[in-house]
Amino acid sequence: MKLVLGVAIAVCVCITQLEAYRILCVFPSSGRSHVLVGQALLKGLAERGHEVTMVSPFKLSKPVPNYREIVVKKVDLDSMAKDFLQKNTGNSPSTMIALFQSQFQTAEMALQDPQFEAIKNEHFDLVIMGYFVADFVLGLGPHFNAPTVVLFSAGLTKLTADFVGNPRAISTVPSVLLGGRGTMGFTDRLKNFLVAILENAVSAASAHFQAAYYERNFPSDRYPPYADVRKNASLVLLNTHFSQTMARPYLPNVVEVGGLQIKPKPDPLPEDIREWLDGAGEYGAVYFCLGSNLKSVDLPPAKLDAILKTFAKLKQRVLWKWESDTIPNAPPNVLSKAWLPQDDVLAHPNVKLFISHGGLGGTSEAKYHGVPVLGIPIFAEQDQNIQALVDEGIAMMLDYQQLDERSFSRAVNIMVREHRYRERAKELSAIYRDRPQSAMDLACYWVEYVARHRGAPHLHYPGADMGFLARESLDVIGFLLVAIYLTLKAVKLVIAFTWRKLFRRSTNSKVKQN
């Protein structure tokens, strides 16, 4: 019996070793919330026995077996984020251009980091590109002669659709810049069409500026053209779920793994935070966080004062992500911490309200745990993320520029007093969780699938290689229009010729009769 058991174990070990891959993930984003999604996936792959290497500006809180880290530098976004809060720069063109440029620079810093240079001669079976703005990093696929997976911490956009040629469905699916769900009327479709043109322009400009970065790091004498690597990804993983957005067409190599960073079983909270939330009693607690890039400490004094005065009048306890030592003049029902395990906090049953800027990660976690949201969007797609929750009945939205004690107090008190928000949040939580397998299992399966089938070229969509005219059949339509025109022209000439012949015969007959 022992011999049989030993043989079985040995066989299992051999199989595991045969299916274990060396996986490299490069996630050069200045946003910690983006990288958290990549770290979650890499940890899941490491737990399955794969040897993973993560290159990013952020380090894990504690080591994980089979998980190697290379921590690189990044362009600091603190001053930009501060302007979002203090100067209301939001989505201005100059801000977006500066954001794009900062991420191009962060990506190049990662590629040229001495620690990363040291592993460029190693073998990897698969390369995962953590995508945020900079895609010239896709050159690492050809460098390591390995299939490439794109991991995006948000939903499908023009930029991510192009990696595999996924149809954008402009007439049926609202752009992330517009948001909304359901059938679009003519006006909505017109707006969506115009926004799609804007997205095309942004995509073209982004590719134009990144071409120089690609050439510097992946010279044309040794690597394929930049345009080719941008449409040669084997798989795109999106951190969304259809219950968050709306049903839309996806290619088989575009997979939604929304909630990838959410743990099915929360980790134990730090003792002081656990005690604070446990002691919240019947009134519960409010969790306030503006994300990993925006900092509450940068709030203008007038808005900070309005928030503190509102919290002081609440019966609920407040847990606040505050990036400095203490909050000045904070009331006794407020506990602040520089960093909080958000997923684990939202999982606590006493958390009754989440006050958020509307990042996709946070709104996903709130939906998963059934926590209503008071959204204060600041920039990017946060407005659309919150509006989607408002439409679903689990959130209210507050205009940041109009935030004062009156508006903030009114919104908070409505959210904590009216049970309909929490009841609806629980309903949507059940829908969000109802899946045949977890987001992690799904993501790991497809990553392994691509590695197992050496890039899975059978999933490649021919439309990714076609130009716009051919893909949209505009050349065919043009040909048919010309053919129809020429046919009608020919028929017209034949009819005219026949008519003239008949008319002449009729005239000649009359002349002869006379």
How would you explain this protein's 3D organization?
It is globular and about 120 Å long. Helix 11 (301-312) links the parallel strand 8 (285-289) and strand 9 (317-321). It is built from 19 helices and 13 strands. The chain has helices at 2-19, 32-47, 78-86, 93-111, 114-117, 140-144, 158-161, 186-217, 226-229, 271-278, 301-312, 342-346, 360-369, 382-392, 405-417, 419-433, 439-452, 468-471, 474-513, and strands at 22-26, 51-56, 67-71, 126-131, 148-152, 235-238, 254-256, 285-289, 317-321, 334-337, 351-356, 373-375, 395-397. By secondary structure, it is of the alpha/beta class. The strands form two sheets. It has a seven-stranded parallel β-sheet. The model is unreliable at 1-17 (pLDDT under 50). Helix 4 (93-111) runs parallel beside helix 8 (186-217) and helix 11 runs parallel beside helix 15 (405-417). The longest helix has 40 residues, at 474-513.
